[in-house]
Amino acid sequence: MYKVCWNVPRGQCSSADILKAFDDAIHDGVDVLSVSLGTDLPLFPQIDDRDGIGPGSFHAVTKGITVVCAGGNEGPSSHTIDNTSPWILTVAASTVDRSFPTGIVLGNNFTILGQAMFRGKEVGFTGLVYPENPGLRPTLFGVCESLTLNNTPVAGNVVLCFTTMNNRAPVSAAVTSVKQAGGVGVIIAKHPGDVIGPCSNDFPCIEVDYELGSQILFYIRSTRSPIVKLSPSKTLAGRPVSTKVAHFSSRGPSSISPAILKPDIAAPGVSTLAASSPFDPFMDGGFALHSGTSMAAPHVSGIVALLKAIHPSWSPAAIKSALMTTAWKTDPFGEPVFAEGSPQKLANPFDYGAGIVNPNKAAKPGLVYDMGTDDYIMYLCAVGYNDSSITQLVGKSKTCPSPKPSILDVNVPSITIPSIRNSVTLTRTVTNVGPVNSVYKAQIDSPQGIHVAVRPDILAFNSSVKDLSFTVEVSTSHKVNTGYYFGSLTWTDETHYVTIPISVRTQIIQFYTDFN
């Protein structure tokens, strides 16, 4: 473990410390680096030393070290993804098939299931109140993060409040206010989400969505003496709890190189039991429940370590490809993966990259999209970094070819075309890591209004043919500027299904250099 962050004014996680940690790790001969760090938007260029992670990870990857990075917690807005270099394995956060239903029984015997981590004793039927402003804005007093309880009988009662914020701050604020006023519990109505945690000293703080919160409020307003009973939380695992991309998880496309898909993969990062420090207000016995892509990245790092043990000769790019091409597009029960947001929607590659990480399948991917240092240098040339900057990063003289290579030809296990007006043709190369004599056929799921043609559409490998290239021609039938449409390309030998996501946006009116 390498400490790079410090609790000092304006210091915190300096690029000098980050770069030194990468250097030390390379010198120590590590196999995997898990980096739960990021930078604020707007992002620095990927070879700028002020970033630290970009240049440092480049040197680690060229030494065969897989670098796994958190994608950031600025979701669900688009273009918020961090750690966007193609040599990095960037991780989004998903939920797990676990929830904590907590019973709320109203005085009219109507039962509601909220979400909480309440392990205390049942709160028997007691008063239920909502702070109402007698003025022109009746709901002003009932905002969780700024509760006004002066005119509300709180002592011995449960308080209902509402918030539009999605983090834990309103919950903490409401609990503090209600406890100080002698209340015995809080019901927080908020945007649906899975980020929950215990409140201090097992004080009941139960989260519900706006719909259920409104039903509770209607009961309060229609009843002379509303009462409520709060039950301890239960744990529900497996069905029917669905997997979702977390609301906070940063989304693509990349703000500095949109033709490179980010994030790459998603992994559990919500309400994860993690070792913590004594300064953590949620810490209990050395551990706390935390959420973030910083929780998701170590899951993938552990999987990478297992893959390295099975395939010690695989490059970081091969490992990333194996994870991406075998990822789940559904949850483990075959149900679609949704992305939390406003509103909730079906997840796409900008939410979870190639999908939810699937460790067992990744061990035998069949084919991989491999890359080495020269491929990353080609990417840097394609993006437009000058020769001197690339030379400084690489440590030896490098000159970009003329004409400049196409970024669409960078051999990543995805196809992302930010701007197409007519048609484009790009190239990919796959390496056989499965049975020596294998024949793969292409299966195409074209994005809506997009035609995709693969040539050749059959790849035959044998003892002397381990690498094969193919071209992908993509054309659009759209006549107006569109958003992104999504599809996929799968190579299969009926045993392995090697799938990469396709993301295409039509731009008839160009706002920047196109890829036609």
Descriptive terms for the model:
516 residues, alpha/beta, Rossmann fold, 4 domains, 20% helix
Question: Would you give an account of this structure?
Answer:
This protein has 516 residues and is α/β, with parallel strands linked by helices. It has 4 domains: 15-96 and 238-365, Peptidase S8/S53 domain (Rossmann fold, 3-Layer(aba) Sandwich), CATH 3.40.50; 98-237, 3-Layer(bba) Sandwich (Glucose Oxidase, domain 1), CATH 3.50.30; 372-408, no CATH class; 411-515, Immunoglobulin-like. The protein has 10 helices and 29 strands. The chain has helices at 15-28, 53-62, 169-180, 210-222, 293-310, 316-325, 349-352, 359-362, 373-383, 387-394, and strands spanning 5-6, 12-13, 32-35, 66-70, 89-94, 98-99, 101-106, 111-115, 123-129, 158-162, 185-189, 205-208, 227-230, 236-237, 244-245, 265-268, 272-275, 287-290, 338-339, 345-346, 367-368, 415-420, 423-432, 438-445, 450-455, 458-461, 467-476, 484-492, 497-506. The chain has a 7-stranded mixed sheet, with helices on both faces. It has a 5-stranded mixed sheet with strand order 22-29-28-24-26, with helices on one face. Helix 1 (15-28) runs parallel beside helix 2. The longest helix is centred in the middle third of the chain and has 18 residues, at 293-310. The radius of gyration is 26 Å and the shape is elongated. The protein starts with a strand and ends in a 10-residue tail after the last strand. The mean pLDDT is 91. It is found in: Secreted, Extracellular space, Apoplast. Required for arbuscular mycorrhiza (AM) development during AM symbiosis with AM fungi (e.g. Glomeromycota intraradices). Belongs to the peptidase S8 family.
